[in-house]
Amino acid sequence: MIRYRPAASLTWLTDSAEAGLKKAERLSKQAVRTKSQFGGSSPKERLYSAGKALFEVAKSAYTEVAKSKMDAHEYVLNESSIIVVSGSKSEEIKYADISGLEIEGLKAKFKHKLGLLTIQPYAFVVAGVAKAPIGWNRDGHEVPYELLIEEIAARSGLEMN
Questions:
Q1: Arithmetic mean of pLDDT over the chain
Q2: Which of 5, 20, 123, 141 is the most exposed place for a label (fewest CB within 10 A)?
Q3: Does residue 100 share a domain with residue 151?
Q4: 98: Cα separation from own chain's centroid
């Protein structure tokens, strides 16, 4: 049994969420200062700080939800089937039932008896104009994004073009 999960490089999501909450806390303190307090601000500035604090809290919450959703997603490759786990539901697809593979850019669609299994990047690393999909954690080892697609294709007896 081999497990593919989103790569551990997504720990930056947790760090980002925590940093956003700290920033929101600082901004909310600015928002409640009055003019009479040391370093106080005008009502307009306080309203602006409160709005920015609310935005940071919302952004942090969204990041935490995205991270937990990615943590709950995995592909388990057995001898005769693949199990796709997404949150609290799972779907088992036998390799013998996979009849075709269609690749569109970085998205792979495996056709099987019950429909389609679509595998696509869950996140990207962007550096300047270069954009690369984040890979997988395969039984504790970071591997390239394409490896999962190649392994499912090989186990299903399909050729990759």
A1: 83
A2: 141
A3: yes
A4: 26
